[in-house]
Amino acid sequence: MLTTQKRKFALALMSGKNKTASAIAAGYSAKTARVKGSQLAKDPEVLAFIARKQ
């Protein structure tokens, strides 16, 4: 199940933001955004959501 934060991340990524900026836009802290953005970009749920929306 795609969480609200993961959905926000995916939408931000699709809008052209980089992974770090997308993680911050999704509500993750600036301290952890770089790592979280990288993790989320590989998340199967996030990838499936992006594939469905394109």
TrEMBL record:
It comes from the Bacteria. It holds the Pfam family Terminase_2. One of its GO terms (biological process) is chromosome organization. InterPro entries: Terminase_Gp1_N_sf, Terminase_ssu. This is Terminase small subunit.
